[in-house]
Amino acid sequence: MKIRTFIPYLSISLLFPVNAFAQTAGSPSKIDSGDTAFLLLSAALVMLMTPGLALFYGGMVRRKNVLGTVMQSFVAIAIVSIQWILFGYSLAFGPDIHGIIGNLDWIGLNRVGVTPNPDYAATVPHIAFMIYQAMFAVITPALICGAFAERMKFSTFLVFTIMWSTLVYDPVCHWIWASGGWLRNMGALDFAGGMVVHITSGISALAAALIIGKRKGHAHDFTPHNLPMTVLGAGLLWFGWFGFNAGSALSSGALSAMTFAVTHISAVGATLIWVVIEWIHRGKPTMFGAATGSIAGLATITPASGFVGPMPGLIIGLCAGAVCYLALNMKTRLGYDDSLDAFGVHGIGGILGTLATGLFAQKLINPAGADGLFFGNSGTFLTQLISVAVTIVYSFCITAIILKVLDKLMGLRVDDESETLGLDLSQHGESGYTL
Q: Fold for domain 36-214+222-414?
């Protein structure tokens, strides 16, 4: 399309998307009302996870930063949703360009209507698939907030979130989940976001913690100021995760039922082993540990949830609790300040779960997947290993570049006075508590 005709076309397509009710690419498909209801409910559950994350993170910081922390997660719902509607969805799932990125044919949700797109979900409206995926796009950058809690400028955070969603999330999402994505074509398995969500956010969180630096007084013990808030957030995350994982089956049936069960099994396994290890290691089991362990189990099972059965799910959960506990305890020895353990839980959990998928996956569970190493296919594990390495390197490098550029242009951190005062007052002019 010539440049002189592109601008008016873009303006019209954004205001009045054409062919919204026309059949999208692929063979004709019939909408199933049960699948549609299931997917919309799952989308609502995944949306609830971001406010749940806000509470989970908000209770973990000091009281002078509770609203600033909650605000980062809450505002991500708005800004990432707008980005997704305008161009993010088209970049992530739009018609493929050499397996790397989607083109802009679906900009402004042009041609994303009520008829199904068989390339992704043949029994639900395309618009339903789009809004379900939007909720994944929303929570992923919100997870990174845990790495720079209590010290990042809000204005810089807004710009960072838009840039990161566009330059990290959308491309990786396309590689793994989009029709034509190069890692998908290679055989990479990621049922609900081990690489797309947890590795990208967790590795980016590590980059952010290293580049932004430690909080003032990092040597002191920053005890969570409101543990019940954190536990409430963990409960909402656990509840929403059933939509996160089971909803990724994109239909209501045998696969979604198995995924639902495996998700819960992994979560309880990780919770229990975390509490036991902490009891042995520190002398007392803590509520904070139990809550963190549950999230570790949920994050770790995410990529495998639609490819494995109940007992592998339990094994993955037990490994998640043990490995993520070790990772969180290592951060003090390594000296970086990942404030709320975004890397230790989501980064490590995502890596562990993605590799475990290459071990335990069974085509018997999901014919669209592959058998893993323990079921006679070593190639699956090798593919998972390569995919993890690619996702780690890309996420870390691009995030580091984004942060370095923003530091030069806007500054990443609040000044010392604002950090001492707290983000609630210095960035937002309000306080979470009046007592």
A: Ammonium transporter fold (1.10.3430)
8 C-beta neighbours (distance < 10 Å), count: 9
pLDDT of 223 reads 87
Domain ranges of the chain: 36-214+222-414
Half-sphere exposure of 84 (CA within 13 A, CB side): 23
Contact predicate 18/111, CB 8 Å: yes
The pLDDT, as a whole number, for residue 434 is 82
- 398-405 long-range contacts, CB within 8 A, separation 24+: 398/164, 398/167, 398/168, 399/164, 399/168, 399/203, 399/204, 399/207, 399/208, 400/207, 400/211, 402/160, 402/163, 402/164, 402/167, 402/168, 403/160, 403/207, 403/208, 403/211, 403/212, 404/211
Q: How many Cβ atoms sit within 10 Å of the Cβ of residue 215?
A: 20
pLDDT of residue 385 exceeding 80: yes
What region does 429 belong to: left with phi over 0, alpha with psi -120 to 50, or beta?
Answer: left
Determine what percent of the chain is predicted with pLDDT higher than 70: 92
pLDDT higher than 60, residue 20: no
Distance from C-alpha of 49 to C-alpha of 73, rounded to nearest angstrom: 10
Q: Which residues contact 117 (CB under 8 A, 6 or more apart)?
A: 24, 25, 26, 126, 129
For all residues of the chain together, what is the average pLDDT? 93
Half-sphere exposure of 114 (CA within 13 A, CB side): 3
Kindly report the CA angle at 214 between 210 and 219, in degrees rounded to 5? 135
Q: Sorting pLDDT into bands at 50, 70 and 90, what band is 332?
A: confident
| Tally of CB atoms within 10 A around 315 | 17
Q: Of 106, 109, 112, which Cα lies nearest the Cα of 85?
A: 109
Cα(70)–Cα(58) distance, integer angstroms? 5
308 strand-pairing partners: none
In angstroms, the CA 246 to CA 248 distance is 5
Q: Decide if 150 contacts 65 (C-beta within 8 A).
A: yes
CB 160 within 8 A of CB 275: no
Residue 305 has pLDDT above 90, yes or no: yes
The span from the CA of 1 to the CA of 20, in Å, is 21
List CB contacts of 73: < 8 A, sequence separation 6 or more: 50, 51, 53, 54, 57, 142, 145
